[in-house]
Specification:
Elements: H1 2-8, H2 10-17, H3 23-28, H4 46-52, H5 57-63, H6 70-77, H7 81-107
Helix pairs in contact: 2-7
The chain binds zinc ion (ZN).
Length: about 110
């Protein structure tokens, strides 16, 4: 089990579980006062971050996943290694940036 999770990885786990750098989740566990996205004042869920927030449109374009929807994500990842890696790249890029920004805001 641990080996499988290790292969899935930290950022893919956040993407699939919604437990991670999402304000709504962080509020639920008592680490944020507000569940809202810091850029557009909508509730910041995994769906908002990965699929809706315009903030990350450029990242999605760069990776070639502008079209990605929640329903298509897992089937797409399971096509093969290249597809898996694209989703991994997308999740890593977005969630790393969010984590870094959150540290900056918290430290301010
Ligand atoms: Zn947003």
């Amino acid at each position: 089990m641990h080996r499988v999770l290790g292969e899935i990885g930290f950022y893919i786990t956040q993407l699939l579980s919604g437990h991670g750098e999402f304000e709504a989740y962080l509020q639920r566990i008592g680490r944020r006062a507000s569940p809202l996205c810091r850029c557009c004042d909508l509730e910041d869920s995994v769906e908002h971050t990965i699929y809706q927030c315009q903030r990350w449109d450029v990242v999605k374009q760069d990776v070639g996943l502008s079209w990605l929807s929640p329903e298509e994500t897992v089937p797409y990842m399971l096509i093969g290694r290249a597809e898996w890696d694209k989703v991994l790249q997308l999740a890593t890029s977005i969630l790393k940036t969010k984590a870094r920004e959150a540290r900056e805001w918290d430290g301010a």
